[in-house]
Amino acid sequence: MAFSSDGKRVLIGSLDGTARQWDAQTGQQIGEPLDHGAIVSAVAYSPDGKHILSQTSQWFYFSEITQNGLTPKSSRFFSRLWENGYRFLDAGGARLQVVVPGAADSLKIEIVRFDTPEAEALQGDPAELLSDWERWLGLKFDASQNWKLAPIYPMEARKEPNLPRPPGN
User: Residue 118 has what pLDDT?
Assistant: First the structure.
């Protein structure tokens, strides 16, 4: 959970796969929840209070706060557990510095950008989208091995997934 910088709103990530905003004074929900289709393990408000970040086990979501609630803007695959070690690099929250566990009891700092390239928020079940890409690549992300890639045997017939591609590809 996270409080907005003005203390008027509370953002909660949930086991039901949603991120919801609440009025801190009245306890009433603000707008419709964002449905991520997987447990929302971390949430944060941008410093300017106009955007939120939410994370499932493998995706970051960047959403705008509107009068009607939360509007998805973009998403990024993130193969490491975030666990709330972060700092914003700009007021709008479009660039995030994240601390993640590294190898052999070390830490790694990564930059997650939502400002470039412009990408639509992914729609659908994140687990199914990842599974589609794994089948396409012939590789599997192994969660028990710190998200290392491993070949899938036997190779399945390759059917290109209907997913957004980075600009220029």
Answer: 47
